[in-house]
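Long-time lurker. I teach an intro course on protein structure, and each term I like to show students one example going from raw sequence to a predicted 3D structure in token notation. This year I'd like something fresh instead of my usual example. Would anyone be willing to generate the tokens for the chain below so I can use it in lecture? Attribution to the forum is fine with me.
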Amino acid sequence: MTLAALQAAVNVGDDAAALALLSGFQPAPAEAQACAALALHVGRPSLAAQWAADSLTRAAALLRLGHTEAARETLSPLPDSPRVALLLARLLALENQADAVGQARAQATHARALARAEGDAAALVAAATLLGELLLPTDPRAALRTLAEGLKVAEMAGEAADAHLLAVLAHVQAAVGGAEKARRTAEKALARAAPRSPARVVALLALGQPEGAYAEASAGELDERWLLPFSLPPRPAALARE
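-- Reply from a regular --
Happy to contribute to a lecture. Here you go:
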């Protein structure tokens, strides 16, 4: 009953009800994976990591939390695939070591190639988003070209553009000089992004709302290394003291 109620709350966008249902909830084993996916969607990655039966869901939750070594252990036994490659690329991006950015780009490029070959549209969009993010600090025009592929995938499928891709795109547009276009794109991303999600955090940063971005990241247990590719103002003093 709780799983059905949780799914219904997520479907209608009742965020408060979804969070209330998750509070103190322990799913039955048969429902744990479905509950983990929903918990990740509503910005509770610690619960998702605890409940996930699927390694990809667990690794995605661990990466939200910044637990890169645990994510690596989870992914290491899995065969190469678009989504495994994508999660490994995100892992490398989070490690923030001197050679990690180049490795992350190579891994994200590999994930994109696998997604193209296998026709995995969701993985292709996510790989384009991550590549755009990684290219943003040094080559925003290359990032723009990369993100365009992700937009094309959604267009061909007749679907709305992904909120995370749009949020990254807003930063790229600002970097190449389209401030007004960037603002409109960020507003669109914000309207589509789930509460406490990386997409929402990145969109708020693009809109010049660091207080809201940091608050959303904290509420969603999002490791702040997810924010490093973007131009960050100092952490607001009130939040820095928390």
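Some talking points for your students: The longest helix spans residues 100-118. The CA atoms of residues 92 and 139 lie 19 Å apart.
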